[in-house]
Amino acid sequence: MDAIDISGDIALVAITLLTLNILLGLLMSVKYNPVRRWPHRHINTLKLHNWTGYTALGVSILHPAVILLSSTVNFRIIDILFPLNAPKQPWVNMLGAGALYLLVFTVVTSYFRFQIGRRWWKPMHYVTYALFVLFAAHAIFTDPTLKDAPIDPFDAEKVYIELLILIVIVATTLRVRWALQQPPPRHHRPKPKRPPRMRRTPPSFLRTP
């Protein structure tokens, strides 16, 4: 098996992990409780969400790195970090590089989310959807053999990727519908401050001499 084939298999693992990570994040955002609902087990969804993100990052870095071992294409390290002048499919590989950099940003900011603060971290975390779009486009338009062959949308690998994309689209749509059906948040008005109680002065005949 050539290094290019291995890199393609690793890419499938990476997009699978990213899909699972996004689905877990969507479940957490709707307050899904695995104890009350299926599978009725104590599952730490936050820890699972974090580790799928870390693993996806490691696998995504390994995916282009393996291409450096190929004897059929002359990729350099600079072609991996900035593929604009790569010998094969430079623009498609730029999509993959952009997805990888966004994934690094997402994982790092999530690791330091308590230091960043929820107010700033939450909008940063929406980058996850952008990186999935880039990664999915990279996976769809890449020729897995790196021979500039025409893309076959009915190839087994492409069908698998298209299925993952469809799952994410459906899950995201359901999440948006759920949010639209929720009642608007209540804005609690601050309670008016009561004036301090006046200390009554006891009658003169009760005062101690």
Task: Summarize this entry quickly.
The protein is an all-alpha fold and 209 residues long. 62% of the residues lie in helices and 0% in strands.
Topology of this structure?
Elements: H1 3-29, H2 45-67, H3 77-81, H4 90-111, H5 113-116, H6 118-125, H7 127-141, H8 156-181
Broad structural category: mainly alpha
Helix content range: 55-70%
Low confidence ranges? none
Shape: elongated
Largest sheet: none
Using DSSP, what is the number of strands?
Answer: 0
What is the rounded distance between the termini?
Answer: 104 Å
**What is the domain total for the residues?**
1
The share of residues in extended strands comes to: under 5%
Question: What is the average of the pLDDT values?
Answer: 89
Can you describe this structure?
- By secondary structure, the chain is an all-alpha fold.
- It has one domain (3-184).
- The protein contains 8 helices and no strands.
- The chain has helices spanning 3-29, 45-67, 77-81, 90-111, 113-116, 118-125, 127-141, 156-181.
Keywords:
8 helices, 62% helix, single chain, 209 residues, mainly alpha
